[in-house]
Specification:
Blueprint: E1 9-14, H1 25-40, E2 49-55, E3 71-75, H2 80-88, H3 96-99, E4 103-106, E5 119-121, H4 127-130, H5 137-153, E6 157-159, H6 162-172, E7 179-181, H7 196-205, E8 211-216, H8 225-233, H9 237-242, E9 243-248, H10 256-267, E10 272-273, H11 284-289, E11 293-296, H12 305-312, E12 317-320, H13 325-329, E13 334-336, H14 341-352, H15 355-368, H16 376-393
């Protein structure tokens, strides 16, 4: 008896974030997830999925750098700037009126309207709702309006942590069953302990010398850099002499106080440094591997990828104990209260002064990253399963 073939599930992913000038954390999340989906589509049991990537009209060529094999590429009818302007005015046409009925996935909070097709937005966190003081004003207004609308339109919602799921369910009054977690995918082929020679080469490339405490992330208030800088300045004189504080990250917003504090500490002779040039994705693992400790004392995170990447690289971590960070780092980091500068400073002093504790945290980190939440295949499978469920459920009325 011949088995009936599975019904085809058509999926359209708005991949604008993969083609923009600034390749953000959302871009990294989306790229990693789509790479794993691309791999699954090579397997016979996944051949009934047809996945199309929508890319900006003038920037379509940028999708080629990912070397996807199993996706159809379609140009979106409008560029990102016009699209966002029309979103704010509720003037966008239904996307399925252009590309036909299928499951539409939007990896950047906001969505296009659809007529008869299921819609799945990715809502990473609610920082713009819960901590508007940390967001750029224009971006906050856009996200408040558009994410609420996306949640109302959604057949299913994807988020990146249990903490974010709880906040989304509570704030938008959606069913917990309709919100699924797909954790960020960290590529173990990239993030792993690097050799001393590679670390030396990369450090020289960016003008990084001596031992250093590392932070990686946007230079913005939510990352709590002002507190980290003050905590660093309170270290013992010998530690200040031996260790610099290396800040690696793109310019953010509302960062005037942070830059003023950096300048002030540098004038006082403290070794607060930033790389000479933009650190590429290829060089980041070596820079993380070369750090004595990794600090991430953010006030709020939807997940918190950088401290987990540090664990993949064998670097001991200090992390805040708020929002999703306990979920992200488990018991493999030294946890601190982000609002207590003295506690942050004491934790840095303690970890720098204890090779045994550093070793314990590194070993705990290697154990933690074996957690199933970091299985890249599971994330891709979840995405495809959600598309199937949304396809059966249909568009939200």
């Amino acid at each position: 008896m011949i088995k009936a073939s599975k019904n085809v599930t058509k999926i359209f992913v708005d991949c604008e974030v993969l083609c923009l000038d600034h390749f953000s954390g959302i871009g990294h999340y989306t790229a990693a997830l789509m790479r794993e989906v691309d791999k699954l589509l090579d397997l016979p049991e996944y051949q009934h999925y047809q996945v199309t990537l929508g890319v900006p009209w003038r920037l379509a060529y940028r999708i080629q750098r990912f070397n996807f094999k199993n996706f159809t590429i379609k140009r979106m009818p409008l560029g990102p700037r016009i699209t966002n302007q029309l979103k704010m005015r509720n003037l966008l046409p239904p996307l399925d009126s252009i590309f036909g009925k299928q499951v539409y996935i939007f990896p950047h909070f906001s969505t296009w309207p659809t007529m008869k097709s299921p819609s799945i937005p990715v809502i990473y966190d609610l920082s713009f709702v819960l901590h508007p003081e940390f967001s750029a004003d224009l971006n906050s207004r856009f996200l408040n309006k558009q994410t609420k609308l996306a949640a109302e339109r959604a057949t299913k919602i994807i988020t990146i942590s249990q903490n974010s799921k709880n906040e989304i369910v509570d704030h938008y009054q959606v069913s917990a069953e309709d919100v699924s977690i797909i954790y960020p995918i960290i590529d173990a082929a990239e993030f792993h302990p690097r050799t001393a020679e590679e670390i030396k080469t990369v450090r020289a490339k960016y003008g990084v010398f001596g031992k250093y405490i590392l932070f990686v992330g946007n230079i913005e208030p939510r990352k709590n850099l002002a507190s980290l800088l003050r905590a660093y300045s309170m270290l013992d004189p010998e530690q200040l002499q031996d260790y610099s504080l290396l800040l690696v990250g793109a310019k953010g917003w509302k960062d005037g106080e942070i830059h003023d504090l950096i300048t002030d500490l540098q004038r006082k002779g403290l070794k607060v440094v930033q790389p000479t040039g933009y650190v590429t994705d290829e060089d980041m693992p070596a820079l993380v591997s070369g750090a004595s400790i990794f600090t991430y004392v953010s006030r709020y995170e939807g997940f918190g990828i950088p401290p987990v990447e540090a664990m993949f690289c064998g670097t001991p971590v200090i992390s805040s104990d708020n929002s999703s960070l306990p979920e992200a780092v488990g018991k493999a980091a030294l946890m601190v209260n982000a609002e207590d500068i003295q506690e942050i400073s004491n934790a840095i002093k303690k970890l720098l002064g204890s090779p045994a504790l550093q070793k314990d945290l590194v070993e705990a980190g290697f154990t933690h990253i074996k957690n199933k939440m970091f299985d890249p295949v599971q994330g891709a499978q979840t995405l495809l399963e959600l598309a199937d469920q949304a396809d059966k459920k249909g568009a939200r009325k």
